[in-house]
């Protein structure tokens, strides 16, 4: 891969991850199917389940169901991109996420908010449609969670 091709590929990979975050925060699963994931995509979230989610429809079903009514803000920073061929790459993204839940749909431990810091460890593949995520593994280094037991004036 020539230097200019490499720079273009880096920017295209960054755009895919930007669409990943946009799709997740806006619950746009069609965008995920069209512009983010490879057809053989898989997702690993070891803090919640030992086995990866695959095939792609199971990935989307899990994320759609597990996010419930949450409002989220995801940021990805400073990618470390290693091209393993002209059509494949390994990428590590530093990440920060904030999840906000309603009392009707709390997080797994009853919390209403989560503020996480960690990394996405991903593989990308260049298809006819462009670069796509083939696999993604989320690992968090720190998680801050808050339980809200009621609003002022509410009965407990």
Structural overview:
The chain is an alpha+beta fold. It has a single domain, classed as Nuclear Transport Factor 2, Chain: A. Helices cover 28% and strands 42% of the residues. The protein is built from three helices and five strands, in the order ααβαββββ. A five-stranded mixed beta sheet has the order 1-5-4-3-2. Helix 1 packs antiparallel against helix 2. The radius of gyration is 17 Å and the shape is elongated. The termini are far apart. The mean pLDDT is 94.
CATH classification, class level: Alpha Beta
Total number of helical segments? 3
CATH topology: Nuclear Transport Factor 2, Chain: A
Q: Report the strand count.
A: 5
CATH architecture: Roll
Spell the H/E element sequence.
Answer: HHEHEEEE
Extract low-pLDDT stretches: none
- Most strands sheet: 5 strands, mixed
The SS-based structural class is alpha+beta
Oligomer: single chain
CA-CA gap between termini = 62 Å
